[in-house]
Amino acid sequence: FLIQFKKKKKGKILDKNSTPKKINYQRDKEMTSMSEEALKEEAKSELKLLSLEHVCFNKDWVLRLNPRSQIDHFICLICKQIANSPMEISCPQHEQMDELLIVGEDCLNQYLKDHNNSCPIAPHANCKYSRNRALQRLVGDLTVMCPRQCMQGGQQTGNETEGESETSGIIRCNFQGKLKELNDHLSNDCSLKAIDCWFKPFGCNQRCSKHNLNDHLISSMKFHFDMVNQLFQSMQQTIQSQRGESNQLKSEINQLRLQMKKMSKMQIQTNSTN
Ligand SMILES: [Zn+2]
Ligand SMILES: [Zn+2]
Ligand SMILES: [Zn+2]
Ligand SMILES: [Zn+2]
Hints:
Residues 239-266 form a coiled coil. 52% of the residues lie in helices and 9% in strands. It starts with a helix and ends with a helix. Mean pLDDT is 80; it is low at 1-32 and 156-168. By secondary structure, it is mostly helical. The chain has helices at residues 2-18, 26-50, 59-63, 68-71, 105-114, 133-140, 147-151, 182-187, 210-219, 221-273, and strands spanning 86-89, 102-104, 129-131, 143-145, 164-165, 172-173, 176-178, 194-196, 207-209. The structure holds zinc ion (4 copies). One zinc ion binds next to loops.
């Protein structure tokens, strides 16, 4: 997911540079700054989502759809959130402890790095730990709601259907699914996922949710039309100048033909006089 995100960012930068430079309306400038702001906003929120991949999962977010009793065993002892890639600490020093000693993989690595490889349970060297696959499976099976919806401050309604509902005009994502299926949802069918404006090939850098795209397409109709028109005109100019070049070539060829004819006539004449 991180790699995907990086690619996406790179793509964005490239696309910005490849935007036709000829188009230079005031509106265009306005739109660009607007969409840049949107891009920044989006990058910020995507970054938050991205952190889902590495650090432990936000407990409050998981608690929205799961009872506290069900998540008690998944708590990372370092950050007190839901352990991502749970690791079990099994140093002989803690053998008397009754509970499973669970930490998220990223939290553990960070802790060991920051504390000179000292164990996070009690300060000692040679911390022993291993991945707990059974727990990982259980965490992956937790039901969660769309984090984009969560960040919008949306409360989940009783509505259990998946997909988008557009009541009250605010777009929402009603996704509820397993934690392990979340990335697939976020990068594919999430209705809050930002998509490019249809007129991106003509230079519009607007990115918005599927629902807002309709509004953008309607409100920016003139802007889009001007962009397409500008491109059309510059293409027509190219065609015309190429037509001119080809006409000139044609006349040059004709002149050459005439000269060839003249020369061959002259040759026949000189041959016959000999
Ligand atoms: Zn953690
Ligand atoms: Zn230990
Ligand atoms: Zn979603
Ligand atoms: Zn647009």
